[in-house]
Amino acid sequence: MKYPTRTEALLLLQDGTLYRGYALGKIGTKGGELCFNTGMTGYQEIYTDPSYYGQIIVNTNSHIGNYGTLSEEQESSSVKISGMVCNVFSSIHSRNIADASLQAYFEKAGIVGIYGIDTRQIVRHIRNQGAMNAIISSDILDEEVLRQKLAEIPDMNGLELSSEVSTKEAYYVGNQDSPLKVAVLDLGIKNSIVQNLANRGVYCQVFPAKTSFEEMQRWNPDGYFISNGPGDPSAMPYAVETVKDVLNAEKPMFGICLGHQILALASGIETYKMHHGHRGLNHPVKNLITGKGEITSQNHGFAVKGDTVRDIANVEVTHINLNDNTIEGIRRKDKPAFSVQYHPESSPGPHDSRYLFDDFVKLMQD
Question: So where's the catalytic machinery, residue-wise (predicted)?
Fold first, then answer.
């Protein structure tokens, strides 16, 4: 595999900041919300996570692409990011079992990217100015034309995206003879989440995002799982109503990330768009029930409002982020329902939080 030709590429931010680098992946133009992930590894899992739909990812690790790609490490059926930014890009890979180089993988998926940029500078800029839209181009080098195209990209605030990435047809995962059945509401779920449930003897039916409680209940599940996903939770009244119905039916429920925010909204708690979000494999969280700390994998740009949580008598805060004290977990005192803001399936990431899947299984068995 040859190195890609050093075709010039531009990265233009919404505030007018311009970076010059070189093209990777497909030659073209693509825009989205610019955000950064601090993970040292696991780039393929990040790119295929549906929660990143509509976003351009800045990889803070210096070298990207050096171990290639492998079909088994997909978190969904396709690449979900809008574009990628990195410092050093390797179009060749050293892992013998890899299926393809990252360059070939991106070309096939139609992903536009840029490398040769000081990603530390970009990260500092986002941390200071906040997450914002951006556009990458390797075929349009006219800055004014890029500005016009950038202005057409919708703001993530108020954007409903789960219905675009969710499965179109229900499907099953696990052993149909398993003693426990879980209805999974797919708002943009990762494969490893469903697999973590299946590994614990749970038979899952994964339903499209806009499936009603009544339709899922006809399967007679023992519990409900509300998945992660992209976009603004406040733009998803359909999911909030479904979760309210699950709560009213007194059914065990577990939510992750977007599912956590939907449970909060269904419980009368407000959500908000964060300044620049949490994305990486190294976020410290304290479990307020056990007093233990966890190093967690995270990917979210929205969160629940701490002051409104404490105003709801039937909701208890179970986890907090030790970096900024944002709410990382809640549970209902009056219903068998709980959720966390982070990713206990940890793909990629540390496995400190996988006990939460065991807690969900125990909740269904009690």
Answer: 257 (nucleophile), 343, 345
Q: Would you say 183 and 205 are in contact if contact means Cβ atoms under 8 Å apart? A: yes
161: closest CA among 29, 9, 308, 49? 49
Reduce the DSSP state of residue 24 to 3 states and report it. strand
Could you tell me the pTM of the whole model? 0.95
Are the C-beta atoms of 81 and 59 separated by less than 8 Å? no
CATH topology of domain 162-365: Rossmann fold (3.40.50)
User: DSSP letters of 344-363?
Assistant: TT-SSS--TTTHHHHHHHHH
Residue 16 annotated as lining a ligand binding site: no
The response to whether 299 counts as a known ligand-binding position is yes
> Among the CATH numbers 3.20.20.10, 3.30.1200.10, 3.30.930.10, 3.50.30.20, which is that of 8-150?
3.50.30.20
CB 263 within 8 Å of CB 337: yes
Residues annotated catalytic, as ranges: 257, 343, 345
Q: Is 34 annotated as a binding residue?
A: no
Tell me: is residue 259 an annotated ligand-binding position: no
Q: How crowded is the C-beta side of 192, counted as CA atoms within 13 Å?
A: 20
Domain ranges, ordered by start, for the chain: 8-150, 162-365
Per-residue pLDDT of the chain (366 residues; tens, 9 = 90+): 444 458 999 999 999 999 999 999 999 999 999 999 999 999 999 999 999 999 999 999 999 999 999 999 999 999 999 999 999 999 899 999 999 999 999 999 999 999 999 999 999 999 999 999 999 999 999 999 999 999 999 999 999 999 999 999 999 999 999 999 999 999 999 999 999 999 999 999 999 999 999 999 999 999 999 999 999 999 999 999 999 999 999 999 999 999 999 999 999 999 999 999 999 999 999 999 999 999 999 999 999 999 999 889 999 999 999 999 999 999 999 999 999 999 999 998 899 999 999 999 999 998
